[in-house]
């Protein structure tokens, strides 16, 4: 019977396809009442489909894997009400959703298969949304089983004087209050104990990419702190609006929050610009050599040469003919960056940057950061034929700073599909285990600590290919590919040098072989990557 589920779902999908084409053709001729009834019918199907999927996830989320005594991979099953370790990662890859969504739905599913089991019926009937069930699950998260059962019975009971269950009749606010009133009766003191834990363990500040060029800053604070902070934001916002009557309330509050947060704080930013070596030496008579490192404060004179692997520190002054050794990138002053020629027209250019968990920052803003703020600017030298930061490998296990910088600038975030943890906060993983695999950029990738563990977990497969793509295969057989964020174009552009490396003719994208410079950057300590002023062809 279970093997018939896919066939049944195929029939539902076919029905929805017919519904879509019918709606697209006939909807303009229907009145509002008919359109509303059709929308409600489709919503009922969607909710029922959510119930079916949660019923499957309730079991899938309990399945895990471990290595047996003989080295074989054994399938395990977590106790009722518990999510197996790494199960949500398998679900995220299979459903193509984020880790957060997979974890949230996994926790809800196992609870619907355990102490919240009766709540699956109204969802299956299409009477409520999955979000409504999640609200009840969140309100009863730390409650005893008896208290949770009392809440379930209460929300499924009809409202006074009606035949409609509370879970269907009440909006989210009233439903949450109904759950809490039951918990107050059955589990006295639960509010105080939960509030204490939340204030100690769940306060946080996070950022998420907002609309293009903006970032959402989300803070979970103690209630009284948030109240005072918001009052201060509103007061400063009103002052700004009095000074500028055309300023809207939203932007005024955003500026006010920034004023409050940065008062008395000195901010120093660090911007890294990845520039392809296609123009020759940046100083008269100076010979560029792969692997050179030059840091802020160093000066050179015409005719100076050096060998691959050269490294210097701040304040290192050299004269013509002096040589040295080491590998990596060269730091330059903001004034020097403004003189760097990276465009076909000879005009200086700084592109926008994409910062993981922050969003896209326009190139004009990056230029202002470079020119006006107290910034340290580092130039990462890129090989125009391979597209990688010029670096050397090492025979040791721990990557040297130059190699770490290469991987961080290339990947910018964790290489697991859907993960957005910045590369600077990740481990550098050897795709082929050291010492069999070298400690170099081609064998290293950024993996956050959690997905580093996933990579080494039983029944998981991870391969870092020569073209820069990372291939993941879950225990369920789901395959996903990720690419370095600092990918290179596969088509020639106006910025490409005449002797650019030939493109791959096999049809496979090569994200490590750019034909034009790319720009990488970090603002206020966050690594980022940007792209050129002309359009490029990504590898996907």
| Tally of helical segments | 16
Gyration radius (Cα, Å) is 29 Å
Beta-strand segment tally: 17
Strand percentage, roughly? 5-15%
Q: Which structural class best describes the helix and strand composition?
A: alpha+beta
Query: How much helical structure, as a percent, in the residues?
Result: 25-40%
Q: Largest beta sheet: what is the strand line-up? A: 5-10-7
**Uncertain ranges:** 273-350, 379-388, 488-540
Biggest pleated-sheet summary: 3 strands, mixed
Q: How would you state the average pLDDT, rounded? A: 75
How far the N terminus sits from the C terminus, by CA atoms, comes to 39 Å
Large-scale geometry: globular
Describe this protein's structure:
It is a single chain. By secondary structure, the protein is of the alpha+beta class. The protein has 16 helices and 17 strands. It has helices at residues 5-26, 32-60, 87-95, 99-112, 120-124, 130-139, 145-156, 166-169, 172-186, 190-201, 223-243, 249-262, 334-337, 363-372, 401-411, 449-455, and strands at residues 63-67, 73-77, 204-209, 215-220, 269-276, 309-310, 330-332, 353-355, 359-361, 375-382, 427-430, 444-447, 461-464, 470-473, 479-482, 519-523, 526-530. Strands 5-10-7 form a 3-stranded mixed beta sheet. A 3-stranded antiparallel beta sheet has the order 13-14-15, with no helix packed on it. A hairpin with a 5-residue loop joins strand 13 (461-464) and strand 14 (470-473). Helix 2 crosses helix 4 (99-112). The longest helix has 29 residues, at 32-60. It is globular.
